[in-house]
Amino acid sequence: MEGDHPVKAAVEKLKDTVTGGxxxxxxxxxxPGSESPTVAEPTEPRVPLPPKADQTGPKPVxxxxxxxxxxxxxxxxxxxxxxxxxxDRLYDTDHSLKAGPRGPVLLQDHHLREKITHFDHERIPExxxxxxxxAAHGVFRGYGNAAGVTKAAFLGEGMExxxxxxxxxxxxxxxxxxTVRDTRGFATKFYTTEGTFDxxxxxxxxxxxxxxxxxxxxIHAGKPHPDREIPQAQxxxxxxxxxxxxxxxxxxxxxxxxxxxxxxxxxxxxxGFGVHTFxxxxxxGETTLVKFHWKPRLGVHSLVWEExxxxxxxxxxxxxxxxxxxxxxxxxxxxxxxxxxxPDTPEQTFEGIDLLDPTKxxxxxxxxxxxxxxxTLNRNPSNYFAETEQVAFHVGHLVPGIDVTDDPLLxxxxxxxxxxxxxxxxxxxxxQLPINRPHAPVNDMLxxxxxxxxxxxGVAPYRPNSLDGGCPFTAGAETxxxxxxxxxxxxxRKVREAPATFDDHFSQARMFWLSMSAPERxxxxxxxxxxxxxxxxxxxxxxxxxxxxxxDPDLCSQVAAALGLPAxxxxxxxxxxxxxxxxxxxxxAWPLDGRIIGxxxxxxxxxxxxxxxxxxxxxxxxxxxxxxxxxxxLDANGEPLTVQRTFATARSIEFDALLVVGSPAPGAxxxxxxxxxxxxxxGPDPRVRLLLDEAFRHGKAIGGWAGAERVLEAAGVxxxxxxxxxxxxxxxxxxEMRELLSQHRVWERFTTGPVG
Length: 756
Known about the structure:
Blueprint: H1 6-19, E1 55-56, H2 110-120, E2 133-142, E3 160-169, E4 184-192, E5 195-202, H3 215-222, H4 238-246, H5 251-258, E6 272-273, E7 278-281, E8 287-296, H6 305-314, H7 318-328, E9 334-343, E10 349-350, E11 353-354, E12 370-381, H8 384-389, E13 402-403, H9 408-424, H10 507-515, H11 518-533, H12 538-549, H13 553-563, E14 596-600, H14 607-619, E15 623-628, E16 633-634, E17 641-642, E18 645-646, E19 657-661, H15 686-697, E20 701-705, H16 709-714, E21 724-727, H17 730-742
Parallel strand pairs: 1-12, 14-15, 14-19, 15-18, 19-20, 20-21
Antiparallel strand pairs: 2-3, 2-12, 3-4, 4-5, 6-8, 7-8, 7-13, 8-9, 9-12, 10-11, 16-17
Helix pairs in contact: 3-4, 4-12, 5-10, 11-13, 12-13
């Protein structure tokens, strides 16, 4: 983006609202409400608090898509008094109606029954897959350069469309951790003027299966074992590897999942893909085949395995917290929507790649991704259940100019998504829930059913009719009708088969492996070693090694050594494959917006320098968190600095980089009996040493001044190691660290083994 720095401007604008008037040093996210609470329970009646500055609800429209004169607060709770669901004011909600103070509860207690009955039904069936989700509102702005291939209005130049985006994991339940190794969902609901368009994708461009009829199999295999309901939200178990090693079309996706792509650093730093090939149609009726891509402005970055494991215990909400905090801090996540286009030929192939095979990609070096619009997420939901949980996506929600292809996985999804929403949301009227309502007029002739909230008029919900004046009328192409693209179908016979081009299951997996940098290959070796090492059955491990042998002998031999098994020979010839540099996360520089910088101090050394570097972090569009021995304020004699984390509560996974002032002495709570991280109270605080040790192992930039080399030495961090910056002042150290931060990690710090 050109012009003023968007994050700096947003941070300045949000200072007062985010900080609750406590001063600019509080310009960090995480404040629970729009106002700071009092210590004593409030007793003076007042209307509900407004949402925080970063929050909003669905746009007010009627169940049939008509813009409402109500503001967004109209669907929120109203008034200062507690009431029943019917608006009857209540004088007590702490005691059941009883026959005397010690008597039995009376059946006539309507408030008790309403309150408990509603509680008993507060949970709807969770999604079978993608149950663990986080979401945000935003806006999509079209660039206007896609008109040559599609007539979709929302891609027009300067056209702004409200969106709702939901990110998710696949395998885990709603209560599972965010940082598990798994595929992530990236689903976008565009509330376009022509109706709702849902782009329901993943952070991995290929899928485990080629045909939707296998979807229950892969999910049943990946889910917890049905006898014990373990393990939760992970693939490191026998049933998953039993299936994917027997079903070799899963090889390519599995390799992506075992790479760093399987554990994103943040949803903000996660690529998205439409997975399938779609068909576009322009105003002249010409068609083009296309693959959709979401390119994050901050680049594609991942956690290392140990970080993911620590986060699963320390902060299982790591990704959803990161997304909400970034939006609250004004570091609005952004992605460009890009398209790869291909001629719509009868063969539906490109450079020998079958475009209908969802286990294949087209390398960007062969078909560059062309940006066609910008997505910005700038508002958090105001209610998780009403918005994030009840949002319903469907690959069949299309608009004129975008159509499906005969990809057999996509064809099955066209049935499955609608069927799922009807079951999960209690009936066919899920589109009338506020988060799902189209922002275009709706006149569908659908009537009744569970949860019908529209109040339809007229007597003739059928066509043709005269009793309702003939309304609704069918539309023509000239009035924006969505007309199915007339695709010629070859004369054929009914079979349960796949084309021969679907039979190659290893060449693209080999291309992916050859495209990885040395550290990324090490991570893949480690992932396979861990996952197969958690399997019980020897046959499953041996079959897994056979799959790896068909990808690359070096990969197979390294994993075999970890498992203590011989490396098998390939059963298929190794395919020639050119690396695709676009597949690697290493070697490029990215913006620093929203990076989280931990500033470690014991409050005794150079607080003026702490204040200065904190401001430099804010000015750079990043988020500073001060880490000190105890909470509260630092520098009571000057402008106070608020502590966001203590030595006891901070953990390395929270931060993209660390700045250390001096050599912090042990805090008063550095007692092993109180904090297991405080192993010894001699020398610098042991929690700080652990913080630095982990950050160093995970390849993060570390800076320090005012004698920080003493604590680095105690933590085993060499002062001359790559990515360690020492200087005379915090601002100068931060300036030297910017380039390190732009590369996400200090990759030189990762030693590699003999993987070829």
